[in-house]
Amino acid sequence: MATVRLAPVLRAAAGGAKQVSAQGNTLAEVLADLYRQYPALKEQIQPEEELSRFVNVYVNDQDVRYLQGLQTAVGPNDTVILLPAMAGGGQE
């Protein structure tokens, strides 16, 4: 099973866990297993068919946008990192 590391903002949806395990041979399969275990994560990570553009997803520290996206291969010893993009800035 792959290790899925969750950013602090996502942990409440996974019972407070910093990381969880999910299985699959592609990122899409790993995420489907993750959503089966923690349904509340789906809305934050992948509300539509594609990944939210506000979430950065890495497999072994490589951004999946520069790999094969949801079809990126994931092995049992791989690490998937989910990092929602942070909006910032203030008013002047």
From TrEMBL:
SUPFAM superfamilies: MoaD/ThiS (SSF54285). This is Molybdopterin synthase sulfur carrier subunit. It comes from Thermogemmatispora tikiterensis. It holds the Pfam family ThiS. PANTHER family: SULFUR CARRIER PROTEIN CYSO, SULFUR CARRIER PROTEIN SLR0821-RELATED. Gene3D superfamilies: 3.10.20.30.
